[in-house]
Structure formats: C-alpha cells, structure tokens
Design a protein that fits this description.
The protein is an alpha/beta fold. It has one domain: Sugar-phosphate isomerase, RpiB/LacA/LacB (Ribose 5-phosphate Isomerase B, Chain: A, 3-Layer(aba) Sandwich), CATH 3.40.1400.10. It has a five-stranded parallel β-sheet, with helices on both faces. Helix 4 links the parallel strand 4 and strand 5. The radius of gyration is 14 Å and the shape is globular.
C-alpha cells in the first residue's frame, strides 16, 4: 500500500506533540488531515478520535495517528470503528510490528510517557512500514466480530 494521506487527532494532552508530527509528515510528502484539537484547552477525546477514525474507516485517509496522555482512551475509541486497527505504541519496535504483523492502520501514542523524539520516530516507522501479509493476513482476517 502506498500511503499518501494520514489523519491525525488528539486531545489536550496530545496537543503539544501534534504540530511536530504534522510538520514531519508534511516534510515527508504526506497529505495530513488534521481533526484537532487545536489548543491545550481540556476536551473530550472521543470528539476528535471519532472523525479521525472515520476518515480511516471510509478510506479518506490511508493511516491515522492519535495522541493523548496514556494512549488508552483514544485506542479504545478508535477500535470501535469497523476495519480500524489502532495500536497503542510506546517503543519503535512495537510500531513496526503493529504494521508488519497486525496491519494496524492507526497508531496511538501516550505522550505523557514518551519524548517528542520517540513519538516522531514511531510515526515515521509506522507510516513507512508495510504489512507482511502471509500468515499474518489470516490472523488479521479473524479479528472482526461477525
């Protein structure tokens, strides 16, 4: 899959990293769909996660990036959407494996527990790593509840 468009969403805790992630993605030539938030004021993360995840679900975006304090709430919310596979990542190897083995199409980052440098490295790895397919495709195919 040639990734072209990436959706990004965050809450107030994730906001401090968002502009740096957007700048990285812009420099790498991606189109970025920014679903907010656009300030450090307290917000309810589902209000920003749902439109971000919907853009991945409906194919408007190829991949998505979510940023919040722990990463848990945004991951749980995104994974309510059909065909969204959001992975909570805190190390670069986890971000790579989420793409390679799980065909994750959204990465969630816990900004209170990682540096901005680590976040940028994980985002770059996530958006440039391909799904390996093969035996992993069979397993990914078994994920949805029917």
């Amino acid at each position: 899959m040639k990734v072209k468009t990436i959706a990004i969403g965050c809450d107030h805790a994730g906001y401090p990293y968002k502009d740096e992630v957007v700048t990285l993605l812009d420099k790498k030539g991606f189109t970025v769909l920014d679903f907010g938030t656009h300030s450090p004021d307290s917000v309810d993360y589902p209000d920003f996660v749902h439109p971000t995840a919907e853009s991945v679900q409906n194919g408007e975006a190829d991949l998505g990036v979510l940023l919040c304090g722990s990463g848990n709430g945004v991951t749980i919310t995104a994974n309510k959407h059909q065909n969204v596979r959001a992975a909570l990542c805190w190390q670069n190897d986890i971000a790579a494996l989420a793409r390679q083995h799980n065909d994750a199409n959204m990465i969630s980052l816990p900004v209170r527990f990682i540096s901005v440098h680590e976040a940028l490295k994980m985002v770059e790895t996530f958006v440039t790593t391909e799904f390996e397919g093969g035996r992993h495709a069979r397993r990914v195919g078994k994920m949805p509840c029917m």
